[in-house]
Amino acid sequence: MPIFQNASFYTTVNHLKDLPPTRAEVAFVGRSNAGKSSAINTLTNRTRLAYVSKTPGRTQHINFFDLGSERYLVDLPGYGFAQVPEAVRAHWVQLLGRYLQTRESLVGLIQIMDIRHPLKELDWKMLHFFIETNRPVHIMLSKADKLSRQEQAKALKEVKEKLSAYPQISIQLFSSLKKSGCETVEQIVEKWFAQ
Ligand code: GDP
């Protein structure tokens, strides 16, 4: 059974101090609109487990989904949401940074980037927060269906080149629309949990 298939809603928190204790968790992070909710819904085979919602108030929530066997999927708030004040955006980035740098049970980070706009400034910031801790990152270049095969390969190669200095980062193509790329991320996360 693929790792995400039995996911069920566990809890939502608004503050880091309220994070539940877990033994092992994998977190999904990405710029607002990158396709994170769609990716979670596709991987869990549920239509609305993660809301595909654009309401700024909602995006501050940290949602936990129970994967069974004391493992959890964590849906982090999207960053870079344009329609909120700069101070609020800065606060979210800080909150994400603290979570990424200090959460002991976090075994690895899944970062979602729109294949047409990868490695924006805030994406780098998140990467740096987390790779300092020496844990692995897996990047899903989402909405791959928006590009031709040739363009997809080119985009993948470019991102790989830009991140070649970081052996702990792996990268793949993904499309929620085509449901393609699920096995790759499932295998990576299974490996993280098994370690
Ligand atoms: P989030 O803000 O990162 O959670 O992004 P969403 O999952 O809400 O997706 C943002 C927009 O991109 C929505 O309009 C989705 O329908 C669209 N989208 C997400 N994934 C894909 C994909 O794989 N292919 C295409 N063509 N569109 C997608």
From TrEMBL:
Family of the protein in this entry: Belongs to the TRAFAC class TrmE-Era-EngA-EngB-Septin-like GTPase superfamily. EngB GTPase family.
Cofactor: Mg(2+)
Function: Necessary for normal cell division and for the maintenance of normal septation.
Gene encoding the protein: engB
Family annotation (CDD domains): YihA_EngB (cd01876)
Keyword terms: Cell cycle, Cell division, GTP-binding, Magnesium, Metal-binding, Nucleotide-binding, Septation
GO BP terms in the entry: division septum assembly
Annotated organism of origin: Craterilacuibacter sinensis
Database matches in Pfam families: MMR_HSR1 (PF01926)
Protein's name in the database: Probable GTP-binding protein EngB
InterPro entries, sorted: G_ENGB_dom, GTP-bd, GTP-bd_ribosome_bio_YsxC, P-loop_NTPase
UniProt cross-references to PROSITE patterns, sorted A to Z: G_ENGB (PS51706)
Upper classification of the organism: Bacteria, Pseudomonadati, Pseudomonadota, Betaproteobacteria, Neisseriales
Entry-linked NCBIfam families: GTPase_YsxC
